[in-house]
Inverse folding.
């Protein structure tokens, strides 16, 4: 009986080579299909926008509900508008988008057909691995960072990441201190804010209880689109109510579980609220894990302005972590750079893969 011959090493290698080539071919075809679809979508967007050439957008998205959106029109009317089936695929929509709508009936019968190009985008990541994030608001002029010195205690690390986010997006930051009725001006907690005054961050003390700073805040927000950002429980909702925002969210109670003071989320979705005195405010859900996207490790230092005032490091590509001849580390050791700010910088750099 003849012995059955097994596959030779060369034939195994041949099959393995063919398998590798097959995978490469499949990946190449998949990439080609994605590229072709992207080009097709780009042509479809261009075709849709060409139909609207010469027409100004007539609405602003106030809140998203899947296939519908609340829209404020230029004439002051509000509508619950249906999205054209292709709008999400071709453009994507979020709070703050300026849109074109079509339809001759009442506002609720109008259909959103396209949006303008966004000036700015505020993104939130879902996890540390999420390097893209999703857009929660657009066309923002100010990022009003709300924080309290107490109840809950001020977290400078979160504040630094919000300031970094504003710098990356090109949005003017504003630090709004809430609940100042619980922190008199002689409170030692105010000393924590000294580094932020030195780098020129506007700081406005407010109290929803006493009314301190509310009129000043109204004046700063007038005619602008402002995103309120901050951890839950710092008083964003109470501040919205004090400002008289139309549809301001209800305030929530603080949670003291586990020995930590945290806020209960009262805002479940982002929405654009109108200021009676003029302007709009984006009220975003409380964000405990603040994510940054599209930022390289070597670019982080650009967004810490106090670094620019120091002498140049010995090496131009210094990350200011453990390199020799680092001027930032020297300034830190000599007390010329706040340790808390440097630690925030270091954590951000080390978190970026």
């Amino acid at each position: 009986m003849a012995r059955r011959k097994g596959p030779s090493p060369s034939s195994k290698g041949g099959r393995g080579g063919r398998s590798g080539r097959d995978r490469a071919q499949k990946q190449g075809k998949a990439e080609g299909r994605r590229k072709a679809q992207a080009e097709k979508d780009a042509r479809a967007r261009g075709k849709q926008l060409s139909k609207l050439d010469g027409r100004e957008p007539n609405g602003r998205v106030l809140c998203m509900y899947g296939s519908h959106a609340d829209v404020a029109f230029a004439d002051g009317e509000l509508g619950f508008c249906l999205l054209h089936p292709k709008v999400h695929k071709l453009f994507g929509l979020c709070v703050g988008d300026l849109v074109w709508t079509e339809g001759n009936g009442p506002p609720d019968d109008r259909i959103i057909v396209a949006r303008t190009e966004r000036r700015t985008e505020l993104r939130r990541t879902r996890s540390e691995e999420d390097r893209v994030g999703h857009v929660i608001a657009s066309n923002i002029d100010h990022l009003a960072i709300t924080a309290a010195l107490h109840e809950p205690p001020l977290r400078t690390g979160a504040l630094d990441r919000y300031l970094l986010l504003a710098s990356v997006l090109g949005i003017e930051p504003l630090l709004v201190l809430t609940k100042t009725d619980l922190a008199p001006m002689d409170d030692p907690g105010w000393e924590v804010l000294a580094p932020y005054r030195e780098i020129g961050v506007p700081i406005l003390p407010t109290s929803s209880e006493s009314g301190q700073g509310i009129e000043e805040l109204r004046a700063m927000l007038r005619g602008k689109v402002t995103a309120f950002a901050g951890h839950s429980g710092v008083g964003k909702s109470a501040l919205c109510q004090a400002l008289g925002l139309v549809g301001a969210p209800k305030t929530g109670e603080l949670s003291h579980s586990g020995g930590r003071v945290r806020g209960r989320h009262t805002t479940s979705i982002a929405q654009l609220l109108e200021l009676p005195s003029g302007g709009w405010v984006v009220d975003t859900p409380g964000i405990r894990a603040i994510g940054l996207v599209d930022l390289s490790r070597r670019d982080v230092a650009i967004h810490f302005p106090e670094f620019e005032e120091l002498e140049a490091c010995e090496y131009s590509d210094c990350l200011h972590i453990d390199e020799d001849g680092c001027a930032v580390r020297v300034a830190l050791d000599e007390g010329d750079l706040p340790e808390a700010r440097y630690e925030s910088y270091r954590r951000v750099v080390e978190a970026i893969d």
Residues 57 and 100 are 5 Å apart (CA to CA). The chain has three domains: 59-115, 121-283, 297-351.
